[in-house]
Amino acid sequence: MSASVLVAGVGVMSSIGNNVAESLDALESGKAGMGDMHYLDSLLNGKLPVAEVKFSNQQLATISGLSSSVSRTAQLSMIAAREALNDASIKNFDQLRTGFISANTVAGMDKTENFFSEFLSDPSKGKLRDVVHHECGSASELVADELAIRNYVTTISTACSSSANSIFFGARLIKHNMLDVVIAGGTDALTKFTLNGFNTLMILDQNFCKPFDEHRQGLNLGEGAGYVVLVSERVAASLEKNPYCRLSGYCNANDAYHQTASSPNGTGSFMAMKGALDKSELSVNDISYINLHGTGTQNNDISEGTAIKDLFGPSYPKMSSTKSFTGHTLGASGGIEAVFSVLAIKHGIIYPNLRLTDPMKELPFVPETKFLKNQNIEHVLSNSFGFGGNCSSLIFSKI
Amino acid sequence: MSDLKKQIIVQLNLKDLKPEDIGDDQPLFVEGLGLDSIDALELIVLLQQEYKIKLSNADDGPKVFQSVRTMAQYIKAHQAQKE
Amino acid sequence: MDKKVYIRSIASISPQKTFGDMMSTDELLEYAGDKFTCVEPDYSKIFDPKLIRRMSRIIKMGAATAIECLHKSGVKMPDAILTGTAYGCLEDTSVFLTKLIENREDMLTPTAFIQSTHNTVGAQIALILKCHNYNNTFVHRGFSFESALLDAMLLLNENENTNVLAGAVDEITNNSHRILSRFGLYKHHASNRDLLLSNSKGTMAGEGASFFSLTNQSSPENIAQLVAMATFYKPLDIEETEKNIVYFLEDMSTDMNDIDLVILGKNGDQKGDKVYDHLSHSIFKNRETIGYKHLCGEYPTATAFAVWLASTILQNKMVPGFVGVEKNGSPIKKILIYNHYERIHHSLFLLSA
What we know:
- Chain A is of the alpha/beta class.
- Chain A folds into two domains: 5-238, 3-Layer(aba) Sandwich (Peroxisomal Thiolase, Chain A, domain 1), CATH 3.40.47; 247-397, Thiolase/Chalcone synthase (Peroxisomal Thiolase, Chain A, domain 1), CATH 3.40.47.10.
- Chain A has twelve helices and twelve strands.
- In chain A, strand 11 (379-386) and strand 12 (390-397) form a beta hairpin.
- Chain A is globular, with a radius of gyration of 20 Å.
- Chain B has a single domain (2-82), classed as ACP-like (Non-ribosomal Peptide Synthetase Peptidyl Carrier Protein, Chain A, Orthogonal Bundle), CATH 1.10.1200.
- In chain B, 53% of the residues lie in helices and 0% in strands.
- The two termini of chain B are 20 Å apart.
- The chains are: A alpha/beta, B mainly alpha, C alpha/beta.
- Chains in contact: A-B, A-C, B-C.
């Protein structure tokens, strides 16, 4: 067993940047990624802002090296996972036991949508190459094959907590000495399916979202991918550069309240945060920063906020929702926010919660609204809560 | 109101119920029929599809969807407005 | 992993009569054509009517199997709920997608969208049980069940006195069957009675739900021990597969001669069955072997049914009649399952009495 699991590399792609450096620039300059649709072909364009990665499928394929016939979900995954692996620069990678644990919720749905409209008119119609990668696992295998990862590949799909779950499942495989290196995280592309789905729930803000604001009107959907490279202590010791931090705590708990709504007291959120703290043997006072789930819906923010009040009160760490930059990237959000959490430790920074003007009346704390530098960030708690009551929290700790 | 009850049963897939099982003033949510927030969203679409009434603010839902009678009154008021 | 993993109870809804009161495993239910269909119970006796109205078939199959399994185990609240599903909730996906296209992104209702989420089955089980514990869903093609089971085995090694509910479910829908048929996966006029001997192109589509209550507590109530499980992804050739099987048994200090029964994932497809035929003449030469896909058909999480079958054999100390083989002689104490899905996802399971 490896006692500690360390983060040796990070990779991220979202509406605010195509890599780590661009993302950091956008986070510092307060540049959000939402806007009209330029790549998603939806009739809702102009009515609802989305946070798109600023590349066409063809451009993505050129960068990723994958065929342009594969889903946007796989393209985003490829680019961010490769950045993470390159960042870790593990010299003897091919001699180690390696795994790719990815997550997504839509998989090849963007291509399936094309297929389905023809298929509905005539079941013998529609291009089969558009559905061959429909399954969630398919996107992961395309990427794992490119990265020459053969020991273990799997995919998790638990709605908005998917990639937080893939990260800590990867960590457990290292702790059990089954693997030496795991690239873990998640990906999701914008699709008409998810955009219309969330629209039926009437939880999409027609303007840019305002997480944890009294007058929040819902979330904006986004897309992207985020991965961390997790390594065992033995591998970490062999690397030329120091690892970023440790993954010190993690927990998944279920709200068991309703298929889509969170319980008013945030039972599941509370249990996930508490469980992660227990796992890391930390107390609430040790946490320097919380990267909130903070979607901007009425329901999530009050539920998450109440759980934080109950667990952390009366003194609160700094916190913010970076979904005010990236939108809600669903299956990718846990991975993207894990990367942001790791970078917060590495650079001693805290990200602003954009567009928060009127703090929620029910809560005794206010998320950070300015970009802060030169902070001593010891431990970061990252929250990801989703449909089906699936709540996960991760804790990253300075070494 | 009987038509409205039939539509509600179909929209919400309440297979075991007949229109006469739903009282005019019986609360639709929680302690009454036991409907929840997802059903409210289904009912909003029902109003749109069957009566061309767009309830744009989900917060109006609880008032309108108190019972079959309040729903019927809301529909009537809107139809009168149009004419 | 040091701790032993036991199977406390099992449940399965399959194309055979394997569930609840209608359980009858003597006679094979016959299927002709290109697919199997699950024999389902009356769900209104299992679920609250308020809950059932939103559940599609896969959710009912999965949740009913899980609840039945838990009931048989005597465990009230599992410490984790782990689900594998390759395709997820296809019917709801198809309903929402169809409406989205037909209504041109307007006047859509949320129910099908919500229920199409891949973790709906696991979430429904948690909701029914009011279970706040760890809940995860794996969606990795022919490794979906294996991943859920691995997570279960890790948990049982990480914690003391633990009970985990783990299983897998996949459904055939009209649309999914039409689409998969176009890939040439299925025979046109097959019969499950001679499916495994057919030696021609394609197989028959299958579906099903199987759940297991697993524990690290030894007890006379346990029906079998899950000694080990391993997966290997895209082996280069049959030789590598063979080596992997040999290593797997060596790793468990198990001699091939101690294996009383080998369950193989043969499905009647000429290409895919080559590896099974080869192994039957090499490392499994003197072993008793049986197939199982003439019972349930081919689908990415069919191995969950294979583990259900192996557990049933160990529990009853005999091969049920519907398998269609005469097995006389020494009692069956150790079973090895080897399966591959589309020659990409290979898995091995070792169970003992």
